[in-house]
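Section 5: illustrative case.
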């Protein structure tokens, strides 16, 4: 590659179900764009800001609500355009018209608000089902496909969905299990946070040497927990005499009669400080191994933001949510971080990527 050749960033856009390529027509009016790629629990977004001197984007060319936009991003040179990243399918959610001068902003999301999976609240019980089976059933109802990238697939003897949208419900189950959920391109993707955090970095950034435009890292003592204690009811040990006196109190008075059906398990961070907080929870569990899984997942979640950071770097399509980068030259903050959100944007300052980061946890 000729280092003297100017860098070219290209956002290729296909509109509507017939995938009409509007890149050339749209680029004449395109002032800026941004693509927000999130690791878990939230919809990805794309925003296009257009000049509208003739008023066509606010009238005859105005996209309808729910119209499909497929986006592809590449960055390189005219000779070597670079690899093209498929950002996914997006559904037009809002169109804003402002001035002067006349500006139209089109915002589209990866999950349309009108889809029942996001808005329709259901009440039902799932019995003797594993997480993958529940997710598969929800995807079938929504007309979506499922990608289940996890060796962990917990089974539930019974789990209740009470006046809860399917997407919110399955996301809650994933969070309780230490898994991440992402909806993109009409697919539900469930993956193991622990496994993804242990992957090799896709890039290394060295302060003072790499294309870092801005950085900010911090630690938060308020986000530090040393243990999670879970109490659950062992139905195999429940008796007629003890069932009625069952209490969820996590710290029972010494004089209170103990219930043999109430079990307790504590999962502890091997590197925790004595000054760190303790967390107590109650959950439905069928065994100590399930209680351990729930406690470990909760402790990982509680401690996930003990060390966080953000960086703005020269734009790179390969920096995507859920991938790991290595940071060097920042002292105690050196190490691997997982990208929670990558916001790719192009405007008057050129192409940049804003990263929201958290330190990986490879200890447990």
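Designed sequence:
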């Amino acid at each position: 590659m000729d280092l003297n050749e100017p860098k070219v960033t290209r956002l290729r856009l296909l509109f509507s179900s017939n995938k009409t390529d509007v890149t050339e027509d749209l680029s004449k009016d395109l002032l800026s764009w941004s693509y927000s790629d999130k690791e878990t629990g939230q919809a990805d977004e794309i925003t296009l800001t257009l000049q509208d001197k003739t008023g066509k984007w606010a009238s005859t060319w105005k996209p309808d609500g729910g119209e499909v936009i497929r986006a592809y991003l590449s960055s390189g040179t005219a000779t070597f355009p670079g690899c093209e990243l498929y950002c996914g399918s997006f559904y037009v959610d809002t169109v804003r018209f402002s001035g002067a001068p006349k500006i139209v902003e089109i915002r589209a999301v990866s999950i349309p608000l009108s889809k029942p999976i996001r808005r329709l609240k259901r009440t039902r019980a799932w019995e003797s089902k594993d997480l993958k089976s529940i997710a598969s059933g929800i995807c079938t109802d929504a007309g979506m496909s499922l990608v289940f990238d996890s060796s962990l697939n917990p089974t539930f003897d019974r789990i209740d969905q009470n006046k809860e949208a399917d997407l919110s419900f399955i996301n809650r189950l994933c969070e309780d299990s230490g898994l991440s959920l992402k909806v993109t391109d009409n697919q539900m993707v469930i993956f193991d946070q622990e496994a993804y955090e242990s992957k090799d970095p896709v890039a290394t950034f060295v302060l003072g040497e790499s294309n870092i435009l801005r950085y900010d890292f911090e630690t938060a003592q308020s986000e530090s927990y040393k243990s999670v204690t879970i109490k659950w009811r062992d139905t195999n040990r429940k008796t007629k005499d003890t069932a009625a006196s069952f209490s969820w109190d996590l710290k029972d008075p010494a004089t209170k009669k103990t219930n043999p059906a109430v079990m307790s398990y504590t999962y502890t961070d091997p590197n925790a400080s004595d000054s760190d907080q303790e967390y107590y929870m109650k959950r439905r569990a069928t065994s100590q191994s399930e209680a351990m899984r729930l406690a470990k997942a909760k402790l990982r979640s509680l401690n996930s933001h003990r060390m966080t950071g953000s960086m703005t770097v020269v734009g790179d399509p390969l920096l995507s949510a859920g991938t790991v980068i290595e940071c060097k030259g920042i002292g105690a903050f050196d190490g691997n971080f997982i990208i929670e959100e990558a916001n790719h944007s192009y405007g008057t300052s050129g192409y940049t990527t804003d990263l929201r980061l958290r330190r990986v946890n490879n200890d447990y």
